[in-house]
Amino acid sequence: MPDSTASSLRERMTPRHLAGACCLLLVGAALGLMSLPEDADAGSTPSDYSVRGIDVSNHQRTIDWPAVASARARFVYVKTTEGQKFEDRYYEKNRDGAKKNGIYVGGYHYALPDRSTGKEQADFFLKKLEHTNDGKTLPPMLDIEWPSRGSDSPSPCYGLSDSEMVAWIKDFVDRILERTGRHATIYTNTNWWNQCTGQNASFGKNPLFIANYTGSPTPLPPGWRTWAIWQHADKGKLPGDQNVFNGSAEDLAALAGASRTRSSSVVSSLADVNGDGGADVVARDASGTLWLYPSNGTKNRTEPVGRRVRIGKGWKDLTLLCGDVTGDHKADILSRDPDGTLLLHPSTGKVTQDTVLGRSVRAGTGWTGVTIGLADVTGDGRADVVARDAAGILRLHPATGKVEKDRVLGKAVRVGTGWNDLTLF
């Protein structure tokens, strides 16, 4: 925004600007992972996401924060600064009012990359922001998008080349990390990002705040496998822009720096699900949501796994095993329902939300009361099922490599008897 009376962030991101393209489980402290974490009116909350929030600026003026909290908004990003001159005079009032009412708060800076360097604007922002790591404050946010005139601006990329824009953003977020210890959230939309950064894919460590009013947060800009916050509407029943968080309330608290003590989340397996040669973490939280934490391999030893991606929902009551059943060098998931049905969920190799696994295929029935394990016993590159029944009989069910109903496993071969009192798998 060019000045304090200019349009709010929601007004700069109209559906017209987005049309046609773009139009955050306690896995284990030793691993150092982030743990687990209406109607059709404009601004109605997307049904898949229960944690909602808003972003506001001086445009909303005085806000009734008790009412916002009563409406179950859990987070807010508040405009703090713009360029290197404008300071939002409502920032402190909004920040303090939201926190007093139990709402997680983050401040944002509206970038004007043609006015000064990324480092200079980050320093100006941080002076006003007064960031604190109190467990209630979201990472500082960079708002980088169309100029105030929108995508029709004669200089939509502020006169910077792709490489100059990428360097500007890097200077800003690096300065935030240096001074706060936090990876800055980046607010943008895919259209602008692709046009003005040359589809740069180097900012995946920064939480993504994606603006998209088309009914879906995707497609995402390159470099991000998932998003943290989705601005899905520019108006609604709450003040300002309408947002949802990609995760649980506990995930949101973790993004704000709160410690996690959740013990009901389970590490299901360590396996190479995406086929890149590194062991990924497959984890299930207490609600039954399944998550993939992709391996960073040797690229980042301080952060061995990347930002998690949702595999799917409804896995709460299932027994889960991971292994390359199909023999394509990607770990699949084998699940057992409470009724004893065994299902194969083949890996697609994709690390995008809800597309990690392909369509499930029934591998068999009658698997209740059986202890099962998954490993390549036959040495053919496919993970077989080894099962012990209540009588202590151990059987091998070799994988066929087929992804066809009731043909995933071949004829069982008895390995031996008397396995009742032994610990297996």
Compile the SSE list and pairings.
Elements: H1 9-12, H2 15-18, E1 52-56, H3 65-70, E2 73-82, E3 86-87, H4 91-100, E4 104-110, H5 118-129, E5 141-143, H6 162-180, E6 185-188, H7 190-197, E7 208-211, E8 229-233, E9 241-245, H8 249-255, E10 266-271, E11 280-284, E12 290-293, E13 309-312, E14 319-323, E15 332-336, E16 342-345, E17 361-364, E18 371-375, E19 384-388, E20 394-397, E21 413-416
Parallel strand pairs: 1-2, 2-4, 4-5, 5-6, 6-7, 7-8
Antiparallel strand pairs: 1-9, 2-3, 8-9, 10-11, 11-12, 12-13, 14-15, 15-16, 16-17, 18-19, 19-20, 20-21
Helix pairs in contact: 5-6
Count every helix, treating DSSP H or I runs of 4 or more residues as helices: 8
Most strands sheet: 8 strands, mixed, barrel
Based on CA atoms alone, the radius of gyration comes out at 24 Å
Proportion of residues in extended strands = 15-25%
Q: State the secondary-structure class.
A: alpha/beta
Backbone shape: elongated
Residue-averaged pLDDT, rounded?
A: 85
Strand arrangement across the biggest beta sheet: 1-2-4-5-6-7-8-9
Low-confidence stretches: 1-42, 260-265
Q: Count the beta strands.
A: 21
Distance between the termini: 60 Å
- The proportion of residues forming helix, as a percent range, comes to 10-25%
What is the element string, with H for helices and E for strands? Answer: HHEHEEHEHEHEHEEEHEEEEEEEEEEEE
